[in-house]
Amino acid sequence: MTEKELIIGGCKVRYVEQCSDASTVVYVFLHGWGSDYTIFKSLFGVVDCLLAFDFPGFGGSSPLREPWTLAAYAAVLREFVEKKAGGRKVVFVAHSFGGRVLLHMLSQQSTLDWIQRIICMGVPFARKQKATSSFMAPILGVAKVIVRLLPRSMRQRIRAWWCDFIGAEDYAVLESVAMKKTFQHVIATDMRYLAQSLRGYDTVFLWGADDVAAPIADAAVVAQEVGATLHRIAGGDHFPFLGATSEAFETAFTQHACL
Q1: Burial of 12 (0-12, 13-18, 19+ CB in 10 A)
Q2: On the CB side of 140, how many CA atoms lie within 13 Å of its CA?
Q3: Where are the alpha helices (DSSP H) in the chain?
Q4: What is the mean pLDDT of residues 39-45?
Q5: Residue 196: CB partners within 8 Å, gap ≥ 6?
């Protein structure tokens, strides 16, 4: 696959696509906070038609010059799919922050008949207590040095977990002003309310049983409310599609992904 670029709303969006002319369904992968499309590479070989992109502010897409809201991200997602899906049915595969963006997009209009299925992993439906900041600065200083020495894939996982775990005040030391304020907007949104937009869709939750950032107990409540299927990945954390549980995740994904 060759990386490409698309301009949406004045922002450069990095993406990849792999589809044949005969494909009638496209899988659109939506990454989490602090990550980019490459985190899903292990799943790309499972589907025969895919689109994956970096949200603005992440990966190879344009950095943010000003704070964004979920509404701004949702607009980019909608335009990207409209431009690139080519009239195919869409299966969304959304992790964490990517799920937040997707739910906001769904909440803005009536049921979209071109969506065939929605697969969510690790979406934080309930807000967490933010970590206290009185002792965090020296710890963060040491942690940042250590994390820089780790492999890129592991850095992505740690960074995304940290973003979901802490509050916006603590996160201020990690990002630009625009990204800090964007993060504040994101975590202030009531995801339990937005999740109700899933009622009109065929939805599957593939959840790490040991997810701390987005506990499976919260996912179970929402799944019951919206009629989603909840599949538990034993031993899985916030990234059940990576590491030791990747094989179990791929098996579950194959079962539930309209393949």
Answers
A1: middle
A2: 18
A3: 41-44, 70-84, 97-107, 136-148, 152-165, 168-171, 177-187, 191-194, 216-226, 246-256
A4: 94
A5: 107, 225, 226
Residue corresponding to tokens 């250590």? 146
Please name the residues in contact with 118: beta carbons below 8 A apart, sequence gap of 6 or more.
91, 92, 94, 102, 198, 201, 202, 203, 204
User: Residue 156's pLDDT is what?
Assistant: 66
Cα distance between residue 18 and residue 258, in whole Å = 17
* H or E element that contains 172: none
pLDDT, tens digit, 9 for 90 and up, residues 70-116: 999 999 999 999 999 988 999 999 999 999 999 999 999 888 999 99
| Residues in contact with 179: Cβ distance below 8 Å, sequence separation at least 6, in sequence order | 57, 64
Q: Mutual orientation of helices 70-84 and 97-107 as an angle, nearest 10°?
A: 80
Q: What are phi and psi of 204, to 5 degrees?
A: -130, 135
- CA-to-CA distance for 33 and 187, rounded, in angstroms? 11
**Cα–Cα distance, 204 to 115 (Å, whole number):** 13
Strands 50-53 and 115-121: unpaired
This prediction has a pTM of: 0.83
Per-residue pLDDT at 257? 87
- Minimal CA–CA distance to 15: which of 47, 62, 48, 69? 62
* pLDDT score at 162: 58
- What CA–CA distance (Å, rounded) separates 239 from 249? 10
Residue 142 has pLDDT above 90, yes or no: no
User: What is the mean pLDDT of the segment spanning 125-132?
Assistant: 60
